[in-house]
């Protein structure tokens, strides 16, 4: 009974792995490459991301900065990101003015009401250093498309990746069952790679041991990744958890009604100061300004640092009075809402900053190797069976 139960799991693990191996290899490899995409882009163009500054230097007022950039780029500043690190550049998103209002197209003009363009700006000189599009941008965009839908448009690629991800979950769970030794006295073997053995044994240990060490993170990646593949899964997970998945995508700012016809919105610095009073801890701030006269200003803050927790705090402020209309502190949210709001950083490995990214990178690298080492194990078993059949035939 024990043998048949184990053999059943072994057969499930084997054939599911063979059926999905190529797709999983591509998905895991592309995920590994994409893990540090932002860091690699910063290495390729460091002058856009960092500035050299004296210890006594002070950044330009955000009010002066936004006004100057709006004039220079012939548009309207709709968002500004202010990092905690004083040697990092600001990111300023500028929406192009409607063609009827624009006398001429500036550096950011010509988009005709499309998506805002995000610029890197020196906070001490207001110099525009470039946009978020760079030499590596298209490469990583292609890597992401390969990861999400295998570069196959029309939903077919997304379906294939989703099915392969479901199979991967079964592979992880069945692999965990197979990892447990038949004899309990051999339990230590599953925790180490016997490097002084022949290559077949080393290959088997790499598949078995590395798979065990990375199974938890791989399981988290798979469970969260299905939210991008299947709408029914995303909605079902939201109902199960009692909170909407990716709620922030379609969420609009609250209404901000002007007290008088000639009312003028408060300066940007006022919103920043009021947000800091509500969220006093240090961190990276993002101010999403109102694109019209009827919505609130949204200020969010995330922690900075090697172990930075990625959960943001957010406050919506009336653009005329500056009064808080809604305060959303992550620590005050119910546990189910906290978990659901962390689905994206949990999948991308950003939940604890660079520290978790390193762990995810290693786990993705292991996942990329599993189809290869698993295939070699299968091939070696086939080679063993052939001599046995020949001996039996001869007998």
TrEMBL record:
The chain crosses the membrane at residues 12-36, 159-182, 210-233, 358-379. Keywords: Membrane, Transmembrane, Transmembrane helix. It holds the Pfam family PepSY_TM. The keyword Transmembrane helix applies. It comes from Pontibacter toksunensis. InterPro entries: PepSY-ass_TM. This is PepSY-associated TM helix domain-containing protein.
